[in-house]
Amino acid sequence: MQQIVRRFEVTTSDGLTLRGEAFGDHTARGLPVVCLPGLARTSRDFHQLAERLTSDPDHPRLVLTLNSRGRGPSDYDKDPRNYDVMTEARDVIDTLVAAGLPEAAFIGTSRGGLLMLAIAAMRPTLIAAAVFNDIGPVIDAMGVARIKTYLTRSEPVRTWDDAVEFVKTANAHHFTTLSERDWERVAQMTFRDENGLPVSDFDPYIIKALEGVDVSETTINLWPQFLALSHCPTLVLRGDLSDILPLSVAREMTRRHPDCELVEIKGHGHAPLMIFDEVNDPIAAFLARVDARRTADAPKASPEWLPKDEIVYLDDVARQVERNKAQLEATLSGQPI
3 vs 226, which has greater pLDDT? Predict the structure, then answer.
């Protein structure tokens, strides 16, 4: 099946232009999907998954991959204070309004999952199904410290060999099964190509905001926001080597939520990479089940065939109105009113 991919732009409520890609057909019958990347990540993380979801002949769907403000080709914000979860969540809501989508399935990796929780607090009915990729309502502080360290203290990347070495150094202990070609693909997802050279694809002010954060004193507890998604089926993906989503938290998510399943991805850390079938297969299967359930639960017309003498025809009703009117006029004839 030939892929339909278009770039899109949307203007936020404060005037920035966000950019992303729309895979598939807007008229596809499957539940549309919105993909939200991590802190310093871009929509490239989801391209292979989006191609997989839109090429499924049994469950075709529209997939939007969005770059948050300050990431990828989206506008950078002149006020770095706007790189916060609530502002970026409102950007996502603006995007759905612009796309004419009253609801969608959301897939959020890392910070993208936090945006989903913020949307759950503001507009929970926008989320018809949720996929949390290695993120939850409670976050391991040690993992946050690791991310802060390699983003704020990394050496400059000047060549694509440097880029591959950068992603390997930062992640090799958390992804134990990747080949050299896989690491090259991760580097290409992490950096954009500019005249044949790798360039960081996010606003440096996003990382500067981390420099003043003492992660040892940062507590994130978003259980109320997570439970605002109790109305929709939810899938939690967890890398079995993750240092962000503790296994205890992932299991607690399935316990507290009435319709939540957990899938662990072997050999992956934070966050499972959507360039592998072992990650994309459970997502595709989950969304197919969501579609099937929505079809089964949809209201269906079930007319009852009445005997002929019980059928009321509109022209009969009209004649009866005329008879009633004539009878009323006869009754009132000559009566003082």
Answer: 226
Angle at 269 between CA 263 and CA 270, to 5 degrees: 95
pLDDT tens digits, one per residue of 202-249: 998 988 766 666 656 556 789 999 999 999 999 999 999 999 999 999
pLDDT at 301: 63
* pLDDT of the residue at 337: 45
Domain limits, the chain: 5-140+219-295
What pLDDT score does 129 carry? 98
Give me the amino acid identity at 107. Answer: I
Task: Judge: domain 5-140+219-295, CATH 3.40.50.1820.
Answer: yes
